[in-house]
Design goal:
This protein has about 260 residues and is α/β, with parallel strands linked by helices. It has one domain: Vaccinia Virus protein VP39 (Rossmann fold, 3-Layer(aba) Sandwich), CATH 3.40.50. It is about 40% helix and about 20% strand. It contains ten helices and seven strands. A seven-stranded mixed sheet has the order 3-2-1-4-5-7-6, with helices on both faces. Helix 5 links the parallel strand 2 and strand 3 (about 100-105). Helix 3 runs antiparallel to helix 8 and helix 9 (about 220-235) crosses helix 10 (about 240-245).
Amino acid sequence: MKPQPEVADVDYSALYDEHPEYVARRAAGSIEQAQVDIEVRLFKLPGLMRVWPSGRSLRRVLEIGCATGELIAAVPAAQRVGLDISPANVAAARARFPELEFHCGDFRGAGLSGFDAVILSDVLEHVTDDAAFLHDAAQLGEIVLVNLPLEDNWLNDRRAYGPDDVSGHLRRYSLADGLALFDQAGLELLAHTQVWIHETPADAARRALRRERLGAAYSGRWPARLAKQLVVAAATAVPPLGRRLFASNLFAAARQRIAR
């Protein structure tokens, strides 16, 4: 894992209030909101449920960094609680999912505990001290479920990480980095899987959405669209090539280490 940049004095609450990606997905009926719904239904939730221990109950669930609430709203649990540092995101989540409980602020001072599961989906790459954040989050529940982007791939090789990154990612992880993070956080890894979104139904559904809303499955002028189509076709035909070109995600379940 590459050294992370200096990120002192960044107001992350304001950053995610104003970030174009989140502003767009807060708009009711937007293509960005529809795309998030697809990713939750066909990629994120299946990935997290795949590593959830078989036969274990899932009654009370907390999602830290819930953004606009789509994932926690889809989790099959009786009590679902979302928390985010962005007031604008929390307001949007409350408006869209009024039956759920949402909080705004730092989870460490929110007075929340006793959950069956604590979800961190696309969160750890955004925080300064990822291991400490993961360790502290795991104290709030029996099991922590993590979805972590693994961007040690060719198309992200020259990406400049930091607060000004297009998605606000402070660092990139390889699979080894992601797995080591649980040990650094003092957690016992229970299960994990690595998934490439371009190999799931979510990718085709996103392209269909773009064709429906924008008239083309890929962005850009026709030469760029054609190039992207050819790259995806090659990645699909030759899986090892696709797995080097595109990022993947680590889905993992872990718990606090039991003293022996």
